[in-house]
Amino acid sequence: MSVTLPAREPALRSIGRRLATPQLGPLLVLIGFLLVFSLTTATFWRAGNLSLIAQQSVILGTLAIGQTLVILTAGIDLANGGIAVLGTIVAGRLADDGANAWLALALAIVLCTLVGLVAGGFVAKLRLPPFIVTLGLLGIVTAATRLYSMGGAFPVTDPLLGWTGNGFNLGGATITYGVVFMFGLYAIVWYMLTQTAWGRHVYAIGNNVEAARLVGVRVPATLLSVYTFAAFLYGLAAWLALGRIPNADPNALQTANLESITAVVIGGTSLFGGRGSLLGTLVGTLIIAVLRNGLTLEGIDPLWQDLITGVLVISAVALDQISRGKSR
Amino acid sequence: MHLRVGALPAAGQRLRRRAIRLGLLAGCALALGLGGMPGARAAQGGKIIVGLVTKTEVNPYFVKLRQAAAAEAKKRGVTLIARAGKFDGDNEGQVAAVEDLISAGVKGILITPNNSTGMLGVIKKARDKGILVIALDTATEPPDAVDATLATNNFEAGVLQGEYAKHAMGSKTPHLAMLDGTPGGSVDNQRHDGYLKGFGIKEGDPAIVGRVDTHGALDQGQTGMENLLSAHPDINVVYTINEPAAEGAYAAIRSAGKTKSILLTSIDGGCLGVKYVKAHEIAATVMQFPKIMATRGVDDVVEYAKTGKKPSGFIDTGAMLITDHPFPGLPSKNSSWGLKNCWG
User: Fold this and answer.
1) How much is the pTM?
2) ipTM, two decimals
3) Nearest residue to A240 (alpha-carbon basis) of A76, A81, A118, A72
């Protein structure tokens, strides 16, 4: 008796430890929803529908990568949707005016990246609060976009700008290049975060900025790189957005900032910085898209989606707080 | 030392495990709850399914439209799945909604597009699958991207508002303030242009002393009107994109003590708007009929599912001038009739 019990204990403990990795809880929630929707609707688990969910995730998923980086440094980015819209309008307008499409796209992405450089500059060098800096930039970028587009939305017909919406057939489902592109970005940024010194510095700053400074992390330079790189990703999100809907609209993506924060938080990344994972964010993004799609197939009022998402956000933050309480 | 290090994580793990168990429980409860929700599995029974995608869930106009569609669907024994954009202008959300509805196996989709060109790709996808697509309230660009459009002719509705204002102004020299909606919105432009035609002036006419974008919101109507009044105290006639904007404008006009000297008109026909007419805050409004759009749209889908017959072209669901100060030659109804027929 007294021999078997201690023998079982470590096994249980290791399961507990694995459960405690931040992305596993969200993953189980995602699997739960997948199961429920597959069992209760005839159409959910079809290749076509699943690929649809992936396509619906590309914009939010890409914005959420940048958001994850910023939040890992204990920051927040309210401007990401606005920056992406700036990208769509600039690329679309330039191409419309007859500019070379590659050039138009490159200029748009560079412009987005520059906005991130400005944000990073204020946060890193002047140590302004990221919330205020990105809130201000959101206003500036949105207004500039509307001024530049003269208020109106317009169709974007250039094949290169819409390229990410093309795709190939795989088992009866269309996989767009945009979906592949997004998963590629996740792989690359995951590698940067987990396998490079830069990634460890990002986590270190979010954990304890003073400690990071003391062990020799170049805090301002790293912060600057995070905001700039995040905005570069928002520029890529603009390209993905044009592929998904070939239409540049200054009124688009108004709630993308909060949705991307939601995806990051549901994915188990701590709003206090320093803890979390990019894969969790991917899971969080998918949870949002799966819920929206699944509830429609069920014929349930979409307001339930907002309600459930709200419950998940608070649960995720509560879990983070509880597990944080332990580490103190 | 060794003991403490070992003891702390153990306690932490227990806490953590408990927290995770709680989280899992909550997740399961949610998942189970889904099955019990009203409407669950409704999509399974081989019934005709009608999809509806409105602009937002917050605007009472679209809430009324959805309620009317739901009532008609119930009456006809079909299932309605309703979705909406998250905010005015949310094109991406509407595209995703249409995609999901296609997956859900709908027979027809009724849509009030947030953006007249943004939905073209996904609408084509739906029609290629044999789904009837009808635009409600707002036309697509080009209009034949959908099978049919059931809508108010917003230009003509604007004309009605403009004609009324012209009659009411009589021989006074107009100093017109225009409280527009959202820049670039197609309905917004049609109402604006219609008003100018009815009023008998052209864009750029010196009679137009100022304009602001209110996004159809009360607060922005108020601040916009306040600013216009301080810039142009001589304003004596005001165009508004809808009644919330008009009510905001009225608040500004009242604080400025100019309710007697400024003619305020609007468009939409919400019940609150008709009450403003009854209270003499707005001289006249133009009513549209979302209920007709919704019921007819549902009927058309049912008809299509049963007989394969599709409606086509632009189907005008009508507009009516509502005022308690009518002018001969301008057909109108009074506010009591308005209160009986208004939406929201």
Assistant:
1) 0.78
2) 0.74
3) A81
